[in-house]
């Protein structure tokens, strides 16, 4: 827990929150909770008071980390389009000011831009806070935190929440808080990266002749059309849902969501665009669609970004999450001559593993999840959907100049026939011990049946199948935080996923506390 705050500086409003309730707001390396009423059975727990206290704790934590008194700290605060953003923004700004820090209101922003506010010489904040809950429903919100080292880790968030629980919420005058047009500064940096990357004859308009459709899902990503694509000469006709609307009336702003991908695909094909791009709410994730409607998500987005950077990092190691396919491994290693390091789910896990490899002398330029979270060593290992889009646009512009399309980068990547995910609930107490027992028996039974158990699985048990009867793979794992076991599978041919389900049912026979009803 952070210590050493000056109680004399706190103007108390007799509001505190217990440690137990505070810690329930932790979601890995973020804070998340219900911020507004409206969904039956979901009570507000990310209150204004909670945001105030957590912001105070961040100011104290940052003072301790930087060795500066809180009065010398400059901290930026931004938010996405959620309906609860204005109320939480006010309380976060007040919480920072109560501890003597100087807060800056960055307005509507993206999560990556908030990290860059620590980097840009024009701002050079000591730390920053992004108010967002990514793709979650409108009633949710959360907080992400950054300092010069990047995003805070799980242990740091626990530290903040424990500190917040012993503080009292305070009020401060924020009427004179400076406003910063951070998203414009960030957009300018992206524009310059594209200009430098393409090196077009018309240097200022390197995307002239390209037709790009963007679906921002009514989140914070609309700036990419107005402040990046259009100034660089791209045709953006057909772009949709660019206006921020925290009720998300059109579709969930999530590149993993089928309705969202169907939406951007339809717009791309209808308007005969060269490419479609879709962002999540806070623009730290993205996926794409090719001119013919082919989706560049999951394995394909990993393959595409890897193909783009492969010439610059020969033999480099690509770190991914655990649910990538064997076909992707083959493409990365045998077509691109890179190495594939399949690790755990969770974007922080993947990023930290890539950092660890680099520190150990293993070149690892990319950490990326099938969810669309991707972080490059050349970009501070920041998971930045807009930066990934920039890499795609540079490649597309170069390909067009050579009379080709960007599709050719992944033309040798085999497409899976079908992939599925089942989430099987565990009933009863001590779900972790039971889930571990399931995994151990699952592996033992698989080996006894002669099935191939993948070596070096960092998460769960992975089985691979390559016979006349069934071809594909399955991965059974245990959720870290919830009483459930996700089961991912991919079939190579029609009917293979049904056959994989049948295999899994035999291996899980007798585990009555595991709800397997969806497998039948």
From TrEMBL:
The family this protein is said to belong to: Belongs to the phosphohexose mutase family.
SUPFAM superfamilies (UniProt xref): Phosphoglucomutase, first 3 domains (SSF53738)
Protein name according to UniProt: Phosphomannomutase/phosphoglucomutase
Coiled coil ranges: none
UniProt cofactor(s): Mg(2+)
Ranges annotated as spanning the membrane: none
GO biological process, any: carbohydrate metabolic process
Organism listed in the record: Anaerotruncus colihominis
Pfam families: PGM_PMM_I (PF02878), PGM_PMM_II (PF02879), PGM_PMM_III (PF02880)
CDD domains in alphabetical order: PMM_PGM
Keyword vocabulary terms for this entry: Phosphoprotein
Entry GO MF terms: phosphomannomutase activity
Record-linked InterPro entries: A-D-PHexomutase_a/b/a-I, A-D-PHexomutase_a/b/a-I/II/III, A-D-PHexomutase_a/b/a-II, A-D-PHexomutase_a/b/a-III, Alpha-D-phosphohexomutase_SF, Phosphoglucosamine_mutase
Residue ranges annotated for the Alpha-D-phosphohexomutase alpha/beta/alpha domain, each copy included: 27-162, 209-293, 299-416
């Amino acid at each position: 827990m952070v210590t050493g705050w000056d109680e004399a500086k706190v103007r108390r409003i007799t509001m505190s929150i217990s440690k137990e309730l505070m810690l329930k707001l932790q979601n890995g390396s973020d804070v998340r909770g219900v911020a507004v009423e409206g969904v039956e059975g979901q009570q507000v727990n990310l209150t204004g008071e909670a945001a105030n206290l957590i912001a105070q704790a961040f100011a104290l934590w940052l003072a301790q980390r930087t060795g500066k008194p809180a009065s010398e700290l400059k901290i930026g605060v931004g938010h996405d389009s959620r309906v609860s953003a204005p109320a939480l923004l006010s309380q976060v700004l007040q919480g920072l000011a109560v501890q003597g820090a100087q807060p800056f209101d960055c307005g509507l922003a993206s999560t990556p831009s908030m990290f860059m506010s620590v980097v840009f010489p024009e701002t050079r904040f000591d730390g920053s806070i992004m108010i967002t809950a990514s793709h979650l429903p409108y009633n949710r919100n959360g907080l992400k935190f950054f300092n010069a080292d990047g995003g805070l880790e799980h242990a740091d968030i626990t530290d903040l929440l424990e500190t917040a629980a012993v503080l009292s919420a305070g009020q401060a005058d924020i009427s004179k808080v400076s406003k910063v047009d951070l998203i414009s500064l960030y957009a300018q940096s992206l524009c310059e990266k594209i200009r430098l990357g393409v090196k077009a004859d018309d240097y200022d308009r390197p995307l002239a002749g390209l037709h790009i459709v963007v679906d921002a899902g009514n989140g914070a990503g609309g700036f990419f059309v107005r402040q990046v694509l259009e100034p660089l000469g791209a045709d953006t006709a057909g772009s949709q849902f660019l206006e921020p609307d925290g009720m998300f009336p059109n579709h969930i702003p999530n590149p993993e969501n089928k309705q969202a991908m169907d939406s951007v695909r339809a717009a791309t094909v209808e308007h005969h665009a060269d490419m479609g791009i879709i962002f999540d709410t806070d623009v730290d994730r993205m996926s794409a669609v090719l001119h013919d409607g082919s989706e560049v998500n999951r394995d394909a987005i990993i393959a595409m970004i890897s193909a783009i950077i492969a010439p610059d990092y020969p033999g480099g190691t690509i770190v991914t999450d655990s649910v990538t396919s064997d076909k992707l491994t083959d493409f990365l290693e045998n077509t691109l001559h890179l190495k594939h390091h399949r690790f755990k789910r969770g974007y922080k896990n993947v990023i930290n593993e890539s950092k660890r490899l680099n520190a150990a002398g293993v070149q690892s330029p990319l950490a990326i999840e099938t969810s669309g979270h991707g972080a490059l060593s050349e970009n501070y290992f920041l998971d930045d959907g807009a930066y990934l889009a920039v890499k795609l646009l540079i490649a597309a512009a170069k390909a067009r100049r050579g009379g080709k399309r960007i599709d050719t980068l992944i033309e040798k990547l085999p497409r899976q026939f079908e992939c599925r995910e089942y989430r099987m609930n565990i009933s009863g107490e001590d779900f972790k011990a039971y889930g571990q027992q399931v995994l151990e028996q699952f592996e033992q039974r698989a080996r006894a049946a002669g099935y191939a158990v993948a070596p070096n699985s960092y998460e769960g048990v992975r089985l691979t199948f390559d016979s006349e009867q069934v071809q594909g793979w399955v991965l059974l794992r245990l959720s870290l935080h919830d009483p459930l076991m996700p089961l991912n599978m991919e079939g190579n041919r029609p009917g293979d996923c049904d056959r994989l389900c049948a295999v899994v049912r035999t291996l899980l026979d007798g585990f009555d506390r595991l709800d397997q009803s969806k497998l039948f």
